[in-house]
Specification:
The chain has five helices and eleven strands, in the order E-E-H-E-E-E-H-E-H-E-H-E-E-E-H-E. The protein is of the alpha/beta class.
């Protein structure tokens, strides 16, 4: 059907491979998750949220809902991604016309980043990595509510190898904070690629 989705549960040895790029999966809706238990927990949480807050528009009848007018962008926070900033500056101005807020060309404070994740429906980050230099991982993990997030930096979605232990990284912090969706890069990209 049109709404089919494939969830990949990959162990530490398979996570580094670009499964989403193999021909049979190209163009399909695919997500990586840490375990089937995690998926089950997210489904139960969504059902609980719908029943507990029926008048709340956070969730539609089919899942998480992102209000396109409640967004925040962080564009070129380090000030050295000139091509990325030039490419998305017009977009940012247009988004402000429909209610978005954001910053461009300078670093956010940790509190600004946290406030955006807690108060907005969608946060879009165009900078180096996953923004780890601006917000500590434990601050993200401990959020009571977290926006859907798009991290467009190099390897922002990659998990670091830990030898015999499971991989760790930024995506897990957002999952633990309850973000309904995280879109991130698994590999390095250049300023002109984004």
């Amino acid at each position: 059907t049109d709404d089919e989705h494939l969830f990949l549960v990959l162990d530490k040895n398979l996570q580094g491979l670009p499964w989403e790029s193999i021909p049979v999966l190209r163009g399909r809706s695919v997500s990586r998750i840490p375990s089937v238990d995690f998926l089950h927990d997210r489904v139960l949480f969504a059902e609980w949220k719908r029943k507990t807050f029926p008048a709340d528009n956070l969730f539609s009848s089919r899942g998480a809902f992102v209000d396109p007018r409640k967004g925040y962008y962080i564009l070129n926070p380090s000030g050295d991604l000139d091509k990325t900033e030039a490419r998305f500056k017009g977009w940012a101005v247009d988004m402000e016309k429909v209610g978005w807020h954001g910053i461009s060309g300078y670093a956010p404070s940790e509190q600004q980043f946290l406030n955006a994740l807690q108060s907005q429906d969608l946060v879009v980050y165009f900078g180096h990595g996953g923004g780890e230099q601006y917000i500590r991982s434990h601050k993200i993990r401990n959020l009571s509510v977290c926006a859907a997030t798009m991290l467009w930096g190099c390897s922002s979605g990659a998990l670091r190898e830990m030898g015999d232990f499971d991989r760790v990284g930024t995506p897990f912090n957002y999952m633990l904070a309850g973000s309904p969706c995280l879109v991130a890069n698994l590999w390095d990209v250049t300023d002109k690629d984004i």
